[in-house]
Amino acid sequence: MSELMSKQISIRGISGSPGICIGKAYIVDREGVNLIKRYPISDAQIPIEIDRFKQSVSKAKNDYAKIIKSIDKAIEGNIDILETHLVLFKDKMLYGKTLDTIATDKINAEWALRKVSRRAKAMFAQIDDPYLKARVNDIDQVTDKIMSSLVGAQDKKISDINKRVIIVAHDLSPADTSQIQLEMIKGFVTDKGGKDSHTSIVAKSLKIPSVLGLGKATVNVKNDDILIVDGSSGLLIINPDEDTIIDYVERQIRFEAYRAGLEREAHLPAITKDGVALKLMANIELVEEIVAAKDYGATDIGLFRTEFLYLDLKRFPTEDELFSKYRELVELMAPHSVTIRTLDINGDKVNPYLSVIEEANPSLGLRAVRFCLENENVFITQLKAILRAAVVGNIKLLIPMISCVEEIIQVKQVIRKAIFELEREKKKFNRDIPLGAMIEVPSAAIVAEYLAEHVDFFSIGTNDLIQYSMAIDRRNRQVAHLYQALNPAVLRLIKMTCDAAKKKGIDIVMCGEMAGDPINIPVLIGMGLTNLSMNSASIPVIKNMIRNIDSQKARDSMGKIMTLNTVKEITDYLLNEYKDILPFQGADGTI
43, 32 in Cβ contact below 8 A? Predict the structure, then answer.
């Protein structure tokens, strides 16, 4: 390797899947897709352009169908992702609007598709829920597939790769990742994507190290460059020097041994050294995720997000459709509990089939419980389905984004209406299910003691609680550094909520991402939290952390932690106190 080639470059992105790999780069390019031009067409050319577009969609769908049929058993659990894309190919919002745009704007199919897809992505980008926001990637990937066919671009097929490499791409669709042969692909990095994207979901299921959202990896990396992918800390190192390679080889060995040990112990109980038992639960969006949740040692489903079906159908689902899905969910988990969160969307930004007034700032507008109370019929339909499913399984009902006592009182009034309708219709249902309020707005934490008089449990949603407390948009890179779970203000809001729950004798759960980060566990145990819900893959790591903690020490430490003024002071204190048991060394997550 020449001196010029060996100059080391490091780029930080987002951890898509933990782990470390070292190898040569293999660029997956879609030449031509990003070089399209706009040109006008005559009335006589409109049918020709429409036909070109339809044929390209048909070809793309056929390619996807072939991939689904030949999918590797290692990732067959992710077929639902590909099938979601198949639906998008003929979705009215994408397919129908493109046909309309070709005809009304009299422009070529490529430009019409780009215009429509950008509009659709802008709509989804307004959503606060990270899982739903990540569906922007789905639109991107389906659009790219159709565009490739339109411009005649030749993709490099991942399934044809016959050497051990690290894939470097602008983006990877689920169709791309589904073609990965584990014996050939060590890991991958992409310019786009995030931890909640389908690309990340597949990477985690394959246990392939990945770093996403790098921005310009495809610009900085050349074919056959030596790469180090540190998926645990979201770092890509290009042409590392010899010392760096030696260091990362050692880290890689430690990580593999560490992960193997965790997975062997996944079903051991989460009990602290001094005998305090914690319940670890899983956050899921799809019924299909239950198998993985159980494999990783989840005792219950602590959060089932219900938005996916509403988006998947592109219309409001019926009561029977919802009931069927919820019944399947609780039957698979029986006798363990499932906490179903009611609809958490913003109507005008997610539902193109609903006509509402456009909002300047949807995250502070008619979303979650506000949307449901404003659209009572939609809310009652969901509540009835949940109450019916509670006959066959153990269900808890969770209401998102409660900000005041008045809202929870209104919710209970709507629940009574749902019960009245079920009684009148003579349907079997269970009226006695626990009712919970999500604490994700600062005002809810402040009045938690009053809210506790109206509900059976609290569920702390730290993702929004941090964002709203700090008045930041965590998607905005200019202020994202302020999104810190260990911020003293956030800790005080959480402690306030825990104290209120304890005083009023109700249960409390944490279901935000904060629960899945090992460095936070001493603080959460110190505050008295014993119910944690998180991404399934985080459970073995957190269980291991819990088994090495003394809960009395954690409680004693809280006096000191609550006097510290900055995130750095709190982080440094925890790293020092728990350095012997933290799975990662350093605040950046490096093992």
Answer: no
> Is the CB of residue 399 less than 8 Å from the CB of residue 411?
yes
The CATH number assigned to the domain with range 270-577 reads: 3.20.20.60
Pairing of strands 165-169, 185-190: parallel
Write out the CATH class of domain 9-29+156-241.
alpha beta
Integer Cα distance of 533 and 511 in angstroms: 4
Neighbouring CB atoms inside 10 A of 89's CB total 17
Q: What is the Cα–Cα distance from 589 to 203, expressed in whole angstroms?
A: 18
φ, ψ at 439 (rounded to 5°):
-100, 95
CB of 232 closer than 8 Å to CB of 586: no
Model pTM greater than 0.90? no
Amino acid letter, 109: A
Q: Cβ distance 485 to 467 under 8 Å? A: no
Taking Cα atoms as reference points, which of 66, 72, 57 lies closest to residue 117?
Answer: 57
pLDDT tens-place string over residues 148-188: 777 665 555 666 677 888 988 887 765 566 566 667 888 88
| Location of structure tokens 């709509």 | 123
Active site positions, annotated: 198, 511
All CATH 1.10.274.10 domain ranges in the chain, comma separated: 43-151
Residue 501 has a CB neighbour count (10 Å cut-off) of 24
